[in-house]
Amino acid sequence: MFRKILIANRGEIACRVMRTARRLGIRPVAVYSEADAGALHVATADEAYPIGPAPAADSYLRGERVIEAARSAGAEAVHPGYGFLAENADFAEACAKAGLVFIGPPPAAIRAMGSKSEAKALMHKAKVPLVPGYHEADQNLEVLTLAAEQIGYPLLIKASAGGGGKGMRVVENGKGFAAALQAARREAKAAFGDDRVLLEKYLARPRHVEIQVFADGQGNCVHLFERDCSIQRRHQKVLEEAPAPGLAGATRHAMGEAAVAAARAIGYVGAGTVEFLLDEDGGGQAFFFMEMNTRLQVEHAVTEMITGLDLVEWQLRVAAGEALPFAQDDLAIDGHAIEARLYAEDPVAGFLPATGTLRRLRLPTGDAHVRVDTGVREGDAVGVHYDPMIAKLIVWDEDRAAAVRRLAAALDATEILGLSSNVEFLRATAGHPAFAAAELDTRFIERHEADLIGEPAPVPDRILVLATLGVVLDRRREAGVEADGTSDRWSPWLTAQGWRLNGEAREVIAFRDGEIEREIVVRYGRGGRLGLEADGWSASAVGELSADGHLSVDLDGMRCSAGFVRHGLAVSVIARQPGVAGGTHHLMLVDPVAAAEDEAPTARLSAPMPGRIVAVLVDAGTSVDKGQPLLVLEAMKMEHTVAAPAAGTVTGVPYAVGDQVEEGVELIGFDAS
Questions:
Q1: Does domain 461-597 have CATH number 3.40.50.300?
Q2: Burial (Cβ within 10 Å: 0-12, 13-18, ≥19) of residue 621
Q3: Whole-number Å distance between alpha carbons of 250 and 411
Q4: 295 is catalytic
Q5: Using CA atoms in the order 617, 620, 626, 632, what is the torsion angle rounded to 10 degrees?
Q6: Which of 202, 310, 476, 590 has the most CB atoms at less than 10 Å from its CB?
Q7: Neighbours of 615 (CB within 10 A)
Q8: What one-character DSSP code corresponds to residue 458?
């Protein structure tokens, strides 16, 4: 077994690999970009080496720097994690040339499955079922257009060189094909350096079911059953579970055999995942090969939970030359596991990735039923350069119904403040009747969007009370700190108690709730009790705010608690208890000075996050309709289209293709009709 390994990755997966390495007595070495100098995976490793600036192309994708770090550390092997260099055959070969073991499959196997079109040709030879489509090398527009017409609409355009939803577009009819093809190629080029695509028939309601395979260097190959990954947004997985609900025993057996056949066909060694589309139309269960990921998957944890095995340990042992510890007949499914991916993103804004600081992060405590994999801590920043995953919540129980209840409880124990996250969306999904009934397919989110996301609603009155009390207590704490630094710490001007000379102890606190301004009259009473009035209602409250943002409140005799964070003018409240309108709620304190200066605000088409302009679709003076695409911004390797909010005229186009823009800048000058 190895004595020291380098993990050529960051975040959650780097921490995950280190955990197993330490258990096996292996010393873990980290690498980091300038943006990750203070990251958790760096703090967790025995040693850590800088490899370049924040952009992945200048650091985590620089294989020569990773290898240099491994040699400097005296590491014997490199674990690539997932993403970055994990499926890079050239990097695997470079490791071997440097005398390092690449903890993954042989370069030839990576290349065989690295091109989706070539992989499909191999699978056809291996008699693995394929979705009807075009997988050829000719990428001429006329050839692809003709192939699309022969396949029939709707169809799917997919990047040939990679996955993760990047370079993927659903095309409903021929009119949108050319534009969708151009966008898919552009995104694939940015993500994988390869703009080749393939076309496939788009199945109406397929399930995404994948098989975990494992092979060693002695010719042994097994599958560790399946995972259902049908709950997706933007063609990226959000919830995964194992085993797949309702999968017939015969189908499981056939899929497992097909996956093993796929692995054997390319001389595979190590951990891999063979992904299939499962079509249940007509009452049967037909499956079709989609792709093979030649690495450990993000969702590998659900397989570990139902088998009791550590797949990273298997990776390390196989890479060290050992045989698989079990044969196929030794493996069995025990219980049911579900994984939820916690992301910094805004579901209301089309799951747009979010950036910011994790000002409050509370994750459930791990035990035999709950596991948390994360690479961040409270106070860490989620930036624009990498995947916005915050953590994975994995739950296990004896059956699916119990596991769903465990998931709901784990999500209820999760608190994320300081940036937008998908926690409330995940809660809504886990609690949806269709999810409980296992009515799963890849359009689940699209079909139930109104239930899972819905329209923004005004913050409930009781949350407004908690927000007001939190602001008062937070200011009181700040005033105490300020008073401790003065010569007159008892000055009434520093009490933040609403004290007035010859006046009533009261004030008005105003919040911006969406587009509405809401005012609360605060009257300061004895013993810290507040009288609150607004819009015909009143309440009496007293409370305490701890340094970590835990708000304990007596509200008209009812005891309740919440999480509270204030940063500048932004206020966030998380409440979970019955009767206090559970969920995460965001408000903005109204700054009277700023409001006076901004009496006549104008609408702006602003950059929602830092990124690069990849397409400008209009010129100054162009008249446009509501919803018409104006510009395409690339951020976090995904494209985001900026559309006209109403019919109007483009008054200016300040940026060109290739320009880098910061969050909040005006992208397009626009006047509504």
A1: no
A2: exposed
A3: 34
A4: yes
A5: 30
A6: 202
A7: 17
A8: P
Each as own residue / partner, the long-range contacts of residues 512-521 (CB below 8 Å, 24 or more positions apart, any chain) are: 512/587, 512/588, 512/589, 512/590, 513/458, 513/459, 513/464, 513/587, 514/456, 514/458, 516/458, 517/590, 518/458, 518/459, 518/464, 520/464, 520/465, 520/468
Domain 132-201 superfamily per CATH? ATP-grasp fold, A domain (3.30.1490.20)
Q: How many other CB atoms sit within 10 Å of the CB of residue 42? A: 18
pLDDT at 175 over 80: yes
User: How far from the centroid of its chain's Cα atoms is residue 312's Cα?
Assistant: 22
Q: Give the H or E element holding residue 86.
A: none
Q: 207-452: which CATH number, 3.20.20.480, 3.20.70.20, 3.40.630.30, 3.30.470.20?
A: 3.30.470.20
Residue 481: exposed, middle, or buried by beta-carbon count in 10 A (0-12, 13-18, 19+)? exposed
To the question of domain 605-672 being in CATH 2.60.40.420, the answer is: no
Among 111, 196, 233, 295, the one annotated catalytic: 295
Residues with Cβ within 8 Å of residue 141, at least 6 apart in sequence: 178, 181
Residue span(s) of the chain under CATH 3.40.50.20 come to: 4-103
Q: Are strands 537-545 and 530-534 parallel, antiparallel or unpaired?
A: antiparallel
DSSP for 361-420 reads EE-PPP-SSEEEEES--TT-EE-SSS--EEEEEEEEESSHHHHHHHHHHHHHT-EEESS-
Cis peptide before 154 (omega within 30 of 0): yes
Domain with CATH 2.40.50.100 in the chain: 605-672
> How far apart are alpha carbons 323 and 317 in whole angstroms?
8
Helix (H, G, I), strand (E, B) or coil at 99: coil
Phi, psi (rounded to 5 degrees) for 250: -65, -35
| Dihedral-angle region of residue 531 (phi above 0 means left; psi in -120 to 50 means alpha; beta otherwise) | beta
Q: Are 191 and 235 spatial neighbours (Cβ–Cβ below 8 Å)?
A: no
Which tens digit of pLDDT belongs to each residue from 191-245? 888 999 999 988 888 999 999 999 999 999 999 999 999 999 988 999 999 999 9
Q: Spelled out in words, what is the top-level CATH class assigned to the domain 4-103? A: alpha beta
**Please, what is the angle between helix 11-23 and helix 311-319, to 10°?**
70
Average pLDDT over residues 165-171: 88
- Strands, E, within 94-196: which ranges? 101-102, 133-134, 155-159, 169-171
pTM: 0.83
Give the residue with greater pLDDT, 115 vs 326.
326
As a whole number, mean pLDDT of residues 274-295 equals 91
- Parts of the chain belonging to CATH 3.30.1490.20: 132-201
